[in-house]
Amino acid sequence: MHDLVAITALGGTDPRVDTVGGVTCSEVPGVALASVAARMGQKDKTAASLAKLIDAPAPEIGRWAGTTISAYWAGPDQWMVEAPFDTHEELADQVQTATGNSASVTEQTDGWTRFDLNGDSIPAVLELLCQLDLRKMDPGSAARCSIHHIGCFVLCRAPDSFSIYGPRSSAGSLHHAIVTAMRSAL
Amino acid sequence: MIINHPLLGPRDASEFTYLGDASLIDRPDWQAENAAEAFYEYGYVRDNPAGEHQELWYHEAGDRSWLVVTRNTLTHEISKVELARDVARARGRSK
């Protein structure tokens, strides 16, 4: 038998946590992800299946919604579904079963890495990182943007809680960008 | 330069990449009698207007949608931004 040790996107055995000023940046490895793209003419059907799955209306443009399983808007007729990895390792199968032939589902779990920012004055950090209009980012907002030339999703969970998704292969660069901005802004 | 994305609102032009003339949407029928001639014109013959120009832009650092941007090549003024799929469907494309 192989004796493999699970490591996080940043290469540690435990998720990395950095605190600067009043803001904490935490690496969040335990997330299952799947993308959903409605097939041509099947948007309404896909949105209805998605709503049932996340127990909330399918998120509109630039929004996220859900409960244990949640989803955020990724593009026209496209969403990313997220859930705790421990209980939803087979999320993509679950989403495909829920949406049937109306959508194409792709497993995304290890394609992305997530960093959560918690604390006051997160906008001060984010305005150094991305070009999003942060005054318009209220709880429930989700937007794709570029952070240091890395395509990322930024989700506002609460005024003092944001999540950033970036490509796992650029986890180190993204983490460096975030922590540098935190040191600069706070 | 700011591009007013039809879904997401004003976004900086640096989030987008430029492809070219929006006439690229009108891909000829490859099974037509005059396909070779039509593809020659599709591939090589372009208008180069000094004024209003429809062009394809890709929102690479955003929602990854293709847009048709109507831009004045003399003033850089953008008068209209539409989703390319809406433009294509309005021109009778099924996909």
UniProtKB/TrEMBL annotation, chain A:
It comes from the Bacteria. InterPro entries: TrmE/GcvT-like. This is Sarcosine oxidase, gamma subunit family. It comes from Ruegeria denitrificans. The lineage of its organism: Bacteria, Pseudomonadati, Pseudomonadota, Alphaproteobacteria, Rhodobacterales.
TrEMBL record, chain B:
GO terms for biological process: tetrahydrofolate metabolic process. It holds the Pfam family SoxD. Signal peptide: none annotated. InterPro entries: SoxD (IPR006279), SoxD_sf (IPR038561). This is Sarcosine oxidase, delta subunit family. The lineage of its organism: Bacteria, Pseudomonadati, Pseudomonadota, Alphaproteobacteria, Rhodobacterales. GO terms for molecular function: sarcosine oxidase activity.
